[in-house]
Amino acid sequence: MDQSTHVDRSTLEQRYRARPERHGLALCLSGGGHRAALFHAGALRRLNAQGLLSQARTLSSVSGGSIANGLLASVWPALERDASGVFTNFERVFEARLRAFCARDIRSGPLLWRRLYPGNWPRLLRPSFSATDLLMDEYRKHLVGALTLGELPKEPRFIFCAANLQTGVNFEFSADSLGDYVLGHSLPGSPLPGATLLAEAIAASSAFPISFPPLIRDYGPGAFTGGDVKALPTGVTLSGVVKLTDGGVYDNMGLEPAWKTHETVLVSDGGTPFAVASRARAFLVFRLWRAYQVIANQSEAVRKRWLVASFLEKTYRGAYWGLGTDLVEYRARGDPGLPGYTGVVLDALRTVRTDLDHFGPGEQSVLMNHGWCLANAAMARWGQGLGTTPHAPTPPAPELLDPDRALVALVGSDKTRVFGH
To answer: Strand, coil or helix: what is 319?
Structure first.
């Protein structure tokens, strides 16, 4: 075997296989708007009760998951843990603030009203300014303030994923670096993380392309180094200008920063489950949208199959739970069952809108219950030996585990309204 063949094979090993030496726990939070953020909040409550949340080495997120992850990063220093690693003030410091934020309509302003305000017209005419900058303002004012990436905790590492429209790969924001593997990353000690608002990273991560244009930033020449030049066509060079859209366009589960380097991977998936269409429309716009849904579903299905197969083959420890998952999938033989939603309630949850609009108290509680119950079932089935259970776990709203009350709380949850709820 000559040296060139050895180098090529080594490169393939690095690109397509998890590293042989991996350590730590990664928690990946999917996209899905406010729905996903609330679903994840319930799952995070369950993981916290097990003493696992405080053990995380990396928290990776996409789109709506970045709303929950961004708030968690901002309040992390204020969380108080007991001797077993459980955050005792988690509900007050994190959950209450997330619920207050998800009760806001943060998309109608940037998409409609603030575009019509004459004072914003000069900014909107600039080529590097868009409605996604107005979305960033919502996150800055109402979620995480003026915190910069450089001010985030170094441990655990919080990573916010967007999709780079030029390179076509995952673009990561974190406390110590920005970039992707084709473009390259900012150098250690670079001022970029310190100058980049956390709200900016969340906005780039959640810029759903049907609604929001790309977030455009000019980081200047030489901002990124170490990119994979072999991935570029001959004669093509990349500048410091990046155009970023929703991270779910590339990887809606937020797995990319985790799968190569971590021993334990937990995935909370609040994305929209794919629905069989009773009648596929032939009109151009609907036809193209349905084709996009099928393509996106297959991409995510392949990732999920690979992940679950990796768990079964013991490549990783960990678990996956998704918004559309039926509890029976986690039930071991002879298991009497665990609390959660099934039947018509699960059907209703599968159709809850993907939106950055107002979610009411009942909707919020049922979504948080659902995330809690699925994380509880997944960890009971696949999480043996992970963490402890020092506190008796309690779902966010036990009274809404009643199917009839849950259905009442979800009335209208499938409707997206142009001017908000």
So the answer is: strand
Q: How many C-beta atoms surround the C-beta of residue 4 within 10 A? A: 8
Task: Report which residue type is found at 257.
Answer: P
Q: Residue 6 — pLDDT band, cuts 50, 70, 90?
A: very low
Q: Is the pLDDT of residue 8 over 60?
A: no
> How far is the C-alpha of 352 from the C-alpha of 411, rounded, in Å?
10
Paired tokens of 13? 């090993």
Residue 321 pLDDT level (bands cut at 50, 70, 90): very high
Give the amino acid at 28: C
**Cβ neighbours around 140 below 10 Å, total:** 18
Between CA 363 and CA 368 the distance in angstroms is: 9
Give 181's contacts (C-beta < 8 A, 6+ positions apart): 169, 227, 228, 231
Q: CB–CB of 400/363 below 8 Å?
A: no
Q: What pTM did the predictor assign?
A: 0.92
99 within 8 A of 371, measured Cβ to Cβ:
no
Dihedral sign for Cα atoms in the order 366, 371, 372, 373 = positive
Q: Is the pLDDT of residue 135 over 90?
A: yes
With bands split at pLDDT 50, 70 and 90, how would you rate the model's confidence at 4?
very low
282-286: long-range contacts at Cβ-Cβ below 8 A with a sequence spacing of 24 or more? none
